[in-house]
Design goal:
Keywords: Membrane, Transmembrane, Transmembrane helix
Membrane topology: Multi-pass membrane protein
Strand content: under 5%
Distance between the termini: 46 Å
Main location: membrane
Order of helices and strands: HHHHHHHH
Protein name: Yip1 domain protein
Structural class: mainly alpha
Oligomer: single chain
Pfam family, one: Yip1
Number of domains: 1
Length: 203
């Protein structure tokens, strides 16, 4: 499912420093980032990046939830809170995040088939989705406005990445990314729930 290219052409710097630089660059200069930071066949850095984002968001949510079990955002098994959290993180990092990333990339590739004859490969799509999750670190903040902005910007980064990598116009990229973006950012990262919470406060 993943491939690690030892000396990719382009691509991202490895290690914590590379992840931190990628996070800043994709947030501030997404077009340039996608042009120079995506390497064909080199999925692993994008996958690792997405797992780090999910883990950071989960840790932030856990930290802001307080120490009580009641109201915790994670299930507690047998009153073993730390063990339960470690188990949940392991499942997210090892299974859920990679599976969702690759399923979404497959769906996006299928949607691109009739409309992007000069499209790049599936591995590039995996990387685009992985790096587009950068703002979603902030979904761990229990404020609906922050969560909605974070997931909304993630969807925008997704569209920009598809536009840059697969050579489709922005309007077409927006249309073709609608379903995958809704699945990842609306459902997966809770964007729809945050928007619903916001709307309920103004009724």
């Amino acid at each position: 499912m993943t491939q690690w290219v030892e000396n990719p052409t382009g691509g991202r710097e490895r290690g914590p420093r590379g992840i931190a630089r990628a996070w800043v660059e994709v947030l501030l200069r997404p077009r340039r980032f996608y042009r120079v930071g995506i390497a064909p066949g080199d999925q692993a850095p994008g996958l690792v990046f997405a797992v780090c984002v999910v883990t950071a968001a989960s840790l932030l949510r856990l930290a802001l939830a307080g120490e009580t079990v009641v109201g915790s955002p994670y299930p507690t098994l047998g009153n073993q809170r730390l063990l339960s959290v470690a188990l949940v993180f392991s499942v997210i990092a090892a299974l859920v995040a990679p599976l969702v990333l690759h399923l979404t990339a497959a769906l996006q590739t299928f949607l691109l088939l009739p409309f992007a004859p000069d499209r790049a490969g599936v591995s590039e799509t995996v990387q685009v989705i992985g790096y587009a999750t950068a703002p979603c670190v902030l979904v761990g903040v229990p404020i609906p406005a922050v969560q909605a902005l974070a997931t909304g910007y993630g969807a925008v980064l997704f569209v920009i990445g598809i536009h840059e990598i697969h050579s489709v116009s922005l309007p077409w990229a927006t249309a073709l990314c609608a379903l995958p973006a809704a699945a990842v950012f609306g459902v997966g990262f809770g964007g729809f729930e945050a928007i619903e919470a916001l709307l309920s406060t103004v009724r």
